[in-house]
Design a protein that fits this description.
The relative contact order is 0.21. The protein has one domain. The chain has helices spanning 14-39, 41-50, 61-83, 87-109, 117-141. By secondary structure, it is an all-alpha fold.
Length: 145
Amino acid sequence: MTANSSVAPYPLNWRRIISGGILAGLVVNAFEFGGHRIYFDDAWTAAFRALGKTPTGWSTFIPANFLVGILLVWLYARLRPAYGSGPKTALRSGMAIWVVFWVIPLMAIMPMELFPTRLLAMAIGLGLVDANLAVLLGAWLYRDK
């Protein structure tokens, strides 16, 4: 398709992107809170103590996780024309966002040895679960106009 093409772009249902994204963001927040503050809390506390720091500011991730949820559903909506609707397309979106927001950043800090590699790997694994569950739920809510 050229820039001067008369074919209208695929219309997005922004109301559904936002509502599905907020729901997806709730899932991401729930899993990230449960994982990091409940299961990994001792490991994070020890890692921060080794750096001479106290782990604070976890709540700053809450709004960011809602934005991640919206991005998950937005990407799903953008992929639908090429791949069709359904869970396979949703998981494509989930995997792409997981790589960008979990794999790349956490693997980038691994060589600095600021945090134990095992802890970062567990965080990447948790992200795989929560991003994909979140997008499946958000995509389920998404409908075209």
